[in-house]
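Re: the 301-residue chain
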Amino acid sequence: MTLREKIAVVTGATRGCGRGIAVELGAAGATVYVTGRTTRESQSPMGRKETIEETAELVDAAGGRGIPVRCDFTAVDDVRALRDRIAEEHGRIDILVDDVWGGDPFVEFDKPLWDTDLEKALGVVHNGLDTHLIALHTLLPLVVSARGLVIEVTDGDDDNYSYPGVGAPYFLVKSGIRALARVMGKDLEPHGVVAMGVTPGFLRSEMMLEHFGVTEANWRDAPDPHYALSETPRYLGRAVAHLAADPNVSRYAGKTLASWTLMREYGFTDVDGSKPDWGRWFADVVKPGVDPATVDPEKYR
């Protein structure tokens, strides 16, 4: 599997899945434009310590070329400047991974919509969905010129289940991204571009580790027993790298596929050599309400 000579753009690459995807594209040899808002000189409203420069350095260390570019995807002028720079330097985008989020500060958990702050609800949608529209509208011409691949990153692989407590705005964003993958899959097909969506399982991102009060070294001590089936952001990254290298990726156009589904297809592992299958765990344990203490999670990894 090689992506050498390929030009990739990952939006929201500061941390989490965006960082994991950027690094794995780099490991396959790609040149990756690492985009996001937090730099070593300027922090985004998210207040996180991770930076695009750190991600770019991880891309370099993995064997690719990381190019950090500060870009606020709520600001059209920023995205146009990114487009113009890539057009001048390479003239195309072979792989566009749209992973912008930025809605965490606005999500109000365990409240009915009418009891939430309207401005916060709109903030979830603006940061989580409008940004995807802006990125696609502005960057797609460079993808079309390369007959490339577009991957939308969401949460969940279908619209039949809303994670408890996250509320309507969050679900609107994540289902909206899946809808974008569906319509782009159709609209871009005549132009030789494949568009689809992907989702991780229970993620061991920097923020989730902090939420559970654990680290990558002791994540099994998390208070949530279902976290035994968690996966690193690199797991989804490896899924994306395999998709980008697959000459028959068009069979997935318009679909949203999960990390565990793609693991079954391509056979890749997480960084620890395991193959966490959150989909099977959810079907066997979470959905029927089985006590996770009675199930060996290693049989699902």
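The mean pLDDT is 96.
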